[in-house]
Amino acid sequence: MSDEELAYLKSFGAHLYNLRKQNNISRVQLAFEIETNEKHLRLIEKGEISTGLSNLYKISKALNISMQELFDFEV
């Protein structure tokens, strides 16, 4: 994976973490809502792994935000 891709994952993960905190949702609760486990969600938030479109859609619905808002961050 390129440095640019890694930077994108880290930025997205930090943004997701902030969105989750702003919505007062625990990592365990969000993981349950998107049908994954807490460890998997933690790795996404840390920018260590990517996730698929279906999970991104579930995340946006669980946080009650648009997909556009989910991707509204700076790298």
TrEMBL record:
GO molecular function list: DNA binding
Residue ranges of every copy of the HTH cro/C1-type domain listed in the record: 16-70
Q: Which Pfam families match?
A: HTH_3 (PF01381)
Superkingdom of the organism of origin: Bacteria
Q: Which CDD domains match?
A: HTH_XRE
Q: Which InterPro entries match?
A: Cro/C1-type_HTH, Lambda_DNA-bd_dom_sf
Q: What PROSITE patterns does UniProt report for this protein, alphabetically?
A: HTH_CROC1
Name of the protein this chain belongs to? Transcriptional regulator, XRE family
Q: Give the species this sequence originates from.
A: Pedobacter xixiisoli
